[in-house]
Amino acid sequence: MREQLTRETTANVYLVLFSLSVLLNIFLLCQHFSFHSPSRPSSTISELSWTRRAAAEAEAVAAISCSGHGRAYVDGVLDNWRPTCECNTCYIGSDCSVLLSNCSADVDSGDPLFLEPYWMQHAAKGAVVLSGWHRMSYSTTDHFKSLELENHIRLLHAAVGNAITDGKYLVFGTGSTQLINALVYALSPENTSSPASVVATVPYYPMYKEQTELFNGRDYEWEGATAKWRNSNKTNFVEFVTSPNNPDCLLCDSVLGGSSVIYDHAYYWPHFTAIPEPADGDAMIFTVSKLSGHAGSRFGWAFIKDENVYNKVSNYLQYNSMGASRDTQSRIFNYVKVILAEIGSNADIFEFGFNKLRKRWQRLQALVNSSSRFSLQQLSPQYCTYFKKIRDPSPAYAWLKCENEEDADCAEVLMKGGIISRGGTKFGSSTQYTRLSLLKTDDNFEMLLQKFKPLVASSDENTSEISSF
Amino acid sequence: MREQLTRETTANVYLVLFSLSVLLNIFLLCQHFSFHSPSRPSSTISELSWTRRAAAEAEAVAAISCSGHGRAYVDGVLDNWRPTCECNTCYIGSDCSVLLSNCSADVDSGDPLFLEPYWMQHAAKGAVVLSGWHRMSYSTTDHFKSLELENHIRLLHAAVGNAITDGKYLVFGTGSTQLINALVYALSPENTSSPASVVATVPYYPMYKEQTELFNGRDYEWEGATAKWRNSNKTNFVEFVTSPNNPDCLLCDSVLGGSSVIYDHAYYWPHFTAIPEPADGDAMIFTVSKLSGHAGSRFGWAFIKDENVYNKVSNYLQYNSMGASRDTQSRIFNYVKVILAEIGSNADIFEFGFNKLRKRWQRLQALVNSSSRFSLQQLSPQYCTYFKKIRDPSPAYAWLKCENEEDADCAEVLMKGGIISRGGTKFGSSTQYTRLSLLKTDDNFEMLLQKFKPLVASSDENTSEISSF
Which of A410, A412, B62, B290 has an alpha carbon 20 to 30 Å from B350's alpha carbon atom? Predict the structure, then answer.
């Protein structure tokens, strides 16, 4: 009887175990099939097919370690079929881990890499996937322009409050660089014996002069600084007004007050300046390089009030390049959408950019002010309609002046101290001045401070104040 | 005893079932964990993280049905937050399913959409994924140029055998359009009282004239057709040689034999022409528009022999746009790699392009030849070093002549018959001629044949021959 009971118990135990096991199987099979089900929403990975190879490749390349001092790209130089790290200035080695000794701080160009960490921190938002058949045609939704990108650029200006765009035409350029000469061309008279005089106020962005002289059209010529023409009765000017100005970052307006003014508002974003009111010029240039930091994308835009000027600019762009890359327009469309969506959130790019540049400015300013050898442009806190408060300066550039007579060539002085800057004469100014870019990587900025310290210290023996840098 | 045996048997059956179930448990658990294992190779979907959202979005948009007469893009015009179909000419409706009645066949532009099906058929190869921080800098691996793209372009020319690139510099442009004026600028004398004369042989690509006149630099001017200068003792020419020529698709060489010749080899690929030998000009322009079909990407390149000319072109490109979009360079890098890898395979893009254009040409030619009202340029089969055989013609354009006196304006005759073509005068030729693009979508080409039939039929009553079209 006991044996019988034992057998019965054994059978029951097996039955229970079998049942549990069957339940587990049912659960696992459900899991298995739901994971492969084609009816899952489109955001799950199970559906990916033709994008998978490229997506996996992009993630694999992004995962290559460059020690925080560089990054690898899918189109990087290959070593053993693998893209190599591209290191920040002064860092070398296959993983950018080696800091070069005696390396100069390169703060020459306006390379906007201060925004690179923003896009690394928001990787999913920044990813862009293009199909092989994406926009192969010359035509897009509005001739050479993406209509949705146009709409979103207008929405962004309205949300930031930095430009009035209603009643103005919009053109896209291969960088704002292309739009500079396009506007000079469009604002110059045609077939004239008196070409337009292209001018700007010192210190000015060198591109205006260099480009105007290089393209050397019959209908315009570079005529230098506005100061020279302030009291002349000459007309027929095309005046560049850069606001905030490059290099000194001050808000500016027209000096000659003529009708043909090109407002270059590349830096009129809350990263770089307070926004006291929306800009409303008849011809206003902007660029994505200084908005999202994508200088390599070569994408800029201009708002144009006058229909004839707009038609001439459009014509110029058609014959110069048949518009800006549609691949880039698609990529920038994504970034404008992200920037718009994140306004006021924890991922607000303007908040990110402002905080980074303000801190850099404060640290550089403290260092410069610790001696009398150098001085910086005067910038004051100002009310910003975007942040809805009085905000500290956060300029893109330091416009440095060497105050001592023996330091006649300021860029040369810095160069000897291991700092590559952009000398004042390029901006139509004197050698007493030089421009330091505050826009580059953290590595660049830290190296600038490191090299600057002894220059300040050697000027007077007041080293105690700067030991905290 | 029998009961005891039954119980024993029951227990054994349960044991067997339990064991089997456990084995299935183990198998399913292994499956489950291996599927989620991070050690699987990088090509599986399980590892995707930050690219997933964008990849899923791209696939969802690609899956929008446009009835084979259109396609939706990720940056398309939104309707209810969903990109809308962009339909081929003559098709309308939210899914492009409605054929417009009385719609003209638009064969005006050289939009290379004949290659769109190639990239749709090879979707995985064509996908490109860019991170948010991809190449934000102005600088890339070779100043404004991607070094790996340069290397692969050189490899492609070597593999196709259409150009000798050794010992020549390479520049990238925002389309070959940008390179035209860059080369005119670079080949013209500086600060001269006798500007360079820019010329081309009739019929010529209109861009040379239009662009040269629009930019109107002081150092060059448009001087029209080479025929005018053949017996002059004037020097100082910049001569455009387009080979194969646009619009008549014949292989050409310099007429004036001067030293400053710009060879435009946009169509010197096996899609469009036999490749009798590699081109070896001192200045040769190519464009991706007519290689892979990505006209919207705005990317072209030029090989330049002379270092001074190269430096001047580079300088021009720097001041015009600071190079071509790095996003686009990355995308084109992928396509050049794919094209190279598939040479000689079932997915050879040249084979695909050649077959498509040859068939189009044969069908159009049969139709035109069925009456005496029209004629086409004479093209003969020729030995091609790429295909290693004598191949039939497969031109990008038909250069159509109206043979009847009453059809004095050929483009106008076609327009009345519902065909939008590009009239001969634009090419410096007469109104007797007009250009028909054979490069566009299948829908465009079929509509061309449909509209052409009655024009041929109405000229003579010989309709029986063409009933097969």
Answer: B62
